Amino acid sequence: MTALGSAEADIEELRLTLTGLLAAELTAAAGLRRELHRNPELSGAERATAAAVASALGCPEAPDIAGTGRLIRIGPPDGPCIAIRAELDGLPVPEQTGAPWASANGAMHACGHDVHLAALTALGRAARRADLPVALLAVLQPREETVPSGALDIVTSAEFAGQHPAAIIGVHLQHLLPAGTVAVPAGVVNAATDDFEITVSGRGGHAGYPQLAADPVLALCQSVVVLQQLISRRIDPTHAAVISVGTLQAGHAPNVIPATATASGTIRTLDRHDRQFLRSAVGEAVAGVCRAHGCEGTVTVVPAEPALVNDPLLAEACQPLLRRAGYVVETEFSSCGADDFAYYGAAGSQGTGEAGTVLPSVMMFAGSGTPVSLHHPEFLPADRAIGDVASAMLAGYLAALVTPDRAS
Ligand SMILES: [Zn+2]
């Protein structure tokens, strides 16, 4: 028997207790946030970050998982747990916030992971002082910003399965939402991503004698345009889908037609059938356009992350708890961003072919209170964001307590 499926009255009492304990942790959490912000570490190298957070959570000796990650269990040592994820890594972005505690090492917490870590620490420390009916598992996850994905490594690990997670909660800051708003929609909230590389082979030659060459530059440029037409003409206009080409490379001299040209980009889809269609359609379109130019075009698609799908029962259970905590709840928000948190809830079900623990999961988005976008060198939410993220994490933990245990 588990404590999941707890009674509403018990949950409300626990909510009030944890909310009070959490408030008392926020000043210390702001100090931790600034320390982490000043010393960001890149994906896969987050040793000092993980050590600082593990120690603040009272568990400096927690063993490494997935390289530099840690799992820290709070509450009952046996039975199921409710996992809450925070990401450890910064980005290779030189900071331009001008804050006294800005990073000077060339890396930056430009995705708010410093806030997420401080929030999880505050909640974990509060939870240690309460009588939890079900354990809270703090998942300090490495490598969110790069591949191979830290989430995939954790969700497929024996250590994570050995904790018997019944659900997993994630909260991410979001610059498109105002402070005081938390989005927790049911269903798909972030896109599936597939990256691709295009190689166009033609015949090089003198730029003044194009009739003697087969120009891969023009074939590649037309291919890029045609990829946008796949979105506008081949995808149902009521479905969100994006193709962005982020790199183009060709040639070394203005008067020489090169023999090859290359590009790379990303496909973002919210619908599984659109994902399958675009994976093959990109290759067919590029091959056809290049053939028309006397060139050969090939495309390699590299599947990245599955779509992030919020469990409907869990998402709906979060909504009243967030309102009771004073937040405006948004239930429609979704974007073509991506997050490897998707692996916890959807591994194996989105055509990734990866086996793993498939858990009821929910990702919430807390308004960052700054119009500056995530990943921008001036992204610097105020410390109040720590309390907002921690309150959303608490709502997620409590929501998992009131929903039935469906993990297997
Ligand atoms: Zn992030």
Task: Please provide a written account of the structure.
With 408 residues, this protein is α/β, with parallel strands linked by helices. It is built from eleven helices and 16 strands. It has helices at 8-23, 26-38, 47-56, 113-128, 150-155, 158-161, 216-234, 272-292, 312-324, 342-346, 384-402, and strands at residues 64-65, 69-74, 81-87, 135-141, 165-174, 181-183, 187-190, 192-201, 205-206, 241-250, 256-257, 260-269, 296-303, 308-310, 328-330, 361-367. Strands 1-2-4-3-5-16-6-15 form an eight-stranded mixed sheet. Strands 10-12-8-13 form a four-stranded antiparallel sheet, covered by helices on one side. A two-stranded antiparallel sheet has the order 7-14. Helix 4 links the parallel strand 3 (81-87) and strand 4 (135-141). The longest helix has 21 residues, at 272-292. Mean pLDDT is 94; it is low at 347-357. The structure holds zinc ion.
Topology:
Layout: H1 8-23, H2 26-38, H3 47-56, E1 64-65, E2 69-74, E3 81-87, H4 113-128, E4 135-141, H5 150-155, H6 158-161, E5 165-174, E6 181-183, E7 187-190, E8 192-201, E9 205-206, H7 216-234, E10 241-250, E11 256-257, E12 260-269, H8 272-292, E13 296-303, E14 308-310, H9 312-324, E15 328-330, H10 342-346, E16 361-367, H11 384-402
Parallel strand pairs: 3-4, 3-5, 5-16, 6-15
Antiparallel strand pairs: 1-2, 2-4, 6-16, 7-14, 8-12, 8-13, 9-11, 10-12
The structure holds zinc ion (ZN).
